[in-house]
Amino acid sequence: MQYLLHTDLAGLTRTRFHRVLGRALSAMLFVLPGFNSAAECLPSDNVRLPTTLEVRVPKVGVQRLFHDGNALYSDGVQGVVAYVLDEHFVKTCPSITTPNCQRSMTLDLSAPVTGTAPLGATPLPLDPIRDFNAHLFATWKLDANNVWQSVQDIPVKTTVISDYTALMFRVNGVRHFLVFGDRLPFGSCLNSFTPIPGSRTAVSITRVSKSEWTVISPSGAQGKLINYANETNPTVVGEYYFDFSVSIKVKTKGKQYRLRPICAATPPPSADRDTDPLAARAAPGPPIGTRLHRRAIPGRRCAVLLAP
């Protein structure tokens, strides 16, 4: 069992139409492992909605997440991928292998938390990090049956605590994750390493309206920085003070897709494995334009993709 993220083509189907789009898109297909071998983490039955994310200045605290001169990151514009499904998701470029990425985010990790590195050491302050392939993930929670409770299911005018929020970026070319919240450890949906507890600071998600959310850290928030150079043995760098605030709005124009879970074996290695290890592991898709169909598996909440 695993949680499969299929990037670029991803076997997407339009709502009510079983066909693969003839262009590269990013999408999530959920077949998740549980927190034990007897259970699965399952997707909700929600529709992928394209969004626009706005980097805002927090009302309190020190701003540590910066845009690149344009505060809006809109799905399909200048290579940005942004949507809401079970989670809020944005990345500034379709893939690490995409040439000439246009959008970036900058993170300020100049304020380490004393004594949070291994063996009680203090992590080193870092210079501002500008990444043209930065990612943001913000989830709500898993229910008692290990089904993802989508951020789309948060009632309007309600604020909830995120079980897991993370920023992914590169430090000297090496993937790192800044993780918030300790309810869902980093790597919980993988079997390749022992999950790492997150930071003690949780991020809040507010459903402002039917089509708008905010994701806000509390003042003085601490994120746990994890070095992901070794995918089977990630290491904790330490914690850093990191306040940020973003707003997410559903785009009024754009395609909407229903993503259906796919049964899959362990995905093979891919050149573009720049996704969140809690959320997914990238796997190569079929050639763009390949027409696929799905065959249901009796007794399973998933199907297989078959070429004609």
| SS content category | mainly beta
Helix amount = under 10%
Strand content: 25-35%
Order of helices and strands: EEEEEEEEEEEEEEEEEEEEEEEEEE
Mean pLDDT: 75
Biggest sheet descriptor: 14 strands, antiparallel
Number of helices: 0
End-to-end distance = 26 Å
Overall structural domain count: 1
- The 3D shape can be described as globular
- Total beta strand runs: 26
How much is the radius of gyration in Å? 18 Å
> Uncertain regions: pLDDT < 50 for 5+ in a row?
1-39, 254-274, 279-308
What labels would you give this structure?
0% helix, disordered N terminus, 308 residues, single chain, disordered C terminus, 35% strand, globular, mainly beta, three-stranded mixed sheet, 14-stranded antiparallel sheet
How is this structure best described in words?
The chain has strands at 4-6, 27-28, 32-33, 40-41, 47-56, 65-66, 72-74, 81-84, 88-91, 105-107, 129-131, 135-138, 141-142, 148-149, 158-161, 165-171, 174-180, 204-209, 212-216, 222-227, 235-241, 245-250, 257-258, 281-283, 293-296, 303-306. By secondary structure, it is mainly β. The protein has one domain. A hairpin with a 6-residue loop joins strand 25 (293-296) and strand 26 (303-306). Residues 1-39, 254-274 and 279-308 have low confidence and may be disordered.
